[in-house]
Structures are given as C-alpha cells and as structure tokens.
Amino acid sequence: MVRGFANNFRPTRKGLGSALGDLEKDIMNILWQKGGVTGKEALAEISRSKKAAITTVLTVLDRLVKKGIVKKVKGESVYIYTPALTKDEFTDIVSHEVMRGVLDISASSAVASFVDVLAEADPKELDRLSRLIEKKKKELRKGT
Question: Is the pLDDT of residue 8 over 80?
C-alpha cells in the first residue's frame, strides 16, 4: 500500500495541494483526466496555465512514480505515465493517514474537533457520519 503522504501534509492549503506540491497536483489532475500521457503531453497541458521546463515535468513525474501514485511504462519510443491510484483512492489514503496522525495526538480532542469542523463545513454530513458509526458498531459486534 502507498503511504507517506501525511508526512508532508499542509493543512493550510486547499484540496490536493495539502498533500501534493503545486506541480505534482497539476500533473496528477492531468493524469486523472487523461488516463495516461507522455512527458511532452503533460508539459503541453501544464503550459496552458504556467511555465515549466520538460526536465522539471519529467523529474516530478519520476518522483510521483517513486511515491507509488504514478506508473511508468515504456511505449514505442517514449514512456507513458498513468495514475496508479484513482483520485478517490488517493484522497482516501491521505485522509486515513492524516486522521491516524491526529488521533495519535489526542483521540478525544480529534473526534470532537472533527465533529465541529464537519458541522461547520456540511451539517448534512453529520447524518452520514452517524450512519457510518452505527454500521461500524454493528460490524464490530458481529466480529466478537
């Protein structure tokens, strides 16, 4: 399983930027949208909104391969980069890692803070959370 994204988690940044660098985030969004691209194709997409060198894009792609969230496959004459995880899988992994880290600090404070933040962000999600808790309780009772 891919791990380690919480090590660089930046809670003050929004969305994927909290777990990935700016160029990493841009590249992953391209891969999730296109499915697979060459380094030059990634550069062409990125160049629509910012300036970047092909060497920089290739370096970031290789870092994402080392992190385990991108696959690199040799094509006819170039490498093709594809996402190793869906966007949902990636966000699930990051969320799980971050929550585990926060719970390690203080489970009771973390849970109370989570409920407060969730209520502020989307009160409807409290009902979903309640259903998830009840489902997990039932699963645990069956397992004992």
Answer: no
